[in-house]
């Protein structure tokens, strides 16, 4: 039985085509930098292919910074609740860094990942330009 279980696990791992380690990104700006761990979905896989990118972001509702990606990301399941540090996708190409917790209206956001550092660096009025890079 153990041999069958181990064989099944090996087959599952081989069929995924990639390791289970999470992808990470660096988000840097004049206000500081943070790292983030991305979830594993088609949207984040396509986002990684765009990197590095520079995004002009604006403050929205005193809870988030939001900016346009150069091209849309694939549709994924959405949710309405978010917490400080959530990276999200509003629509198909609005990259969002949430620095406060809250809830968005329907249809919700695609969760891209979570900031690992001090997301409060973005809790300031006004626009900011960020650079997003893949961490190898």
Automatic annotation (TrEMBL):
Domain Cyclophilin-like, chain residue ranges per copy: 28-133
Pfam families hit by this protein: Cyclophil_like2 (PF18050)
Which keywords fit this entry according to its UniProt record?
Signal
Signal sequence residues: 1-21
Name under which the protein is recorded:
Cyclophilin-like domain-containing protein
According to its UniProt entry, this protein's organism is: Vreelandella nigrificans
Source lineage = Bacteria, Pseudomonadati, Pseudomonadota, Gammaproteobacteria, Oceanospirillales
């Amino acid at each position: 039985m153990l041999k069958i279980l181990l064989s099944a696990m090996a087959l599952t791992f081989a069929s995924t085509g990639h390791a289970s380690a999470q992808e990470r990104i660096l988000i840097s700006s004049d206000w500081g930098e943070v790292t983030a761990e991305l979830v594993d979905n088609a949207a984040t896989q396509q986002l990684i292919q765009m990197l590095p990118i520079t995004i002009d972001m604006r403050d929205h509702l005193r809870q988030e910074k939001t900016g346009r990606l150069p091209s849309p990301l694939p549709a994924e399941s959405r949710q309405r609740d978010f917490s400080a540090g959530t990276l999200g996708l509003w629509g198909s190409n609005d990259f969002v860094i949430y620095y406060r917790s809250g809830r968005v209206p329907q249809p919700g956001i695609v969760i891209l990942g979570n900031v690992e550092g001090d997301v409060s660096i973005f809790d300031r009025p006004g626009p900011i330009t960020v650079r997003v890079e893949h961490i190898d």
